[in-house]
Amino acid sequence: MAKFMDVHRGMKGVTADQLREAHRADLAIEGDESVHFEHAWADPESGIVYCLSEAPSAEAVQRIHERAGHPADEVHAVPLEV
Amino acid sequence: MAKFMDVHRGMKGVTADQLREAHRADLAIEGDESVHFEHAWADPESGIVYCLSEAPSAEAVQRIHERAGHPADEVHAVPLEV
């Protein structure tokens, strides 16, 4: 298992309810790929959402986001953390 | 105070020691701007570093990063979090 940060763009105007609902949709199916989405942070002004997860691969992260209806624009392994 | 995510690019090959040292340099002066850098995550392969902070403004975040020798390429307020 490894840590990943993924980035969604084009989410201008995203609301707290929409972020919560999107996260809930990920959590509902993440177990199918042994992914766990830990946190998400959103900037409604620039339309960027960052998601931090633990997962076996970037592809597994993306498959969950795709099935939940919101594919990521970038998925990066972040093996270093402070 | 608000939450911010900032992004540094061009850090290919960054090591755990370099990330720790860069974070330490931020922590040493962050109080001057009432900023607190909570976490940083790095992808040595793509050269991207993400930093999560609490701060009074994006400008305050950037001023600390600049003085510490590593200006961010983007600083985004992230008022929404799950």
Automatic annotation (TrEMBL), chains A, B:
Matching InterPro entries: SCO4226, SCO4226-like
Gene3D superfamilies referenced in this protein's UniProt entry, alphabetically: ORF SCO4226, nickel-binding ferredoxin-like monomer (3.30.70.3090)
Highest taxon in the source lineage: Bacteria
NCBIfam families for this protein: Ni_bind_SCO4226
Protein name: SCO4226 family nickel-binding protein
Lineage per the UniProt record: Bacteria, Bacillati, Actinomycetota, Actinomycetes, Kitasatosporales
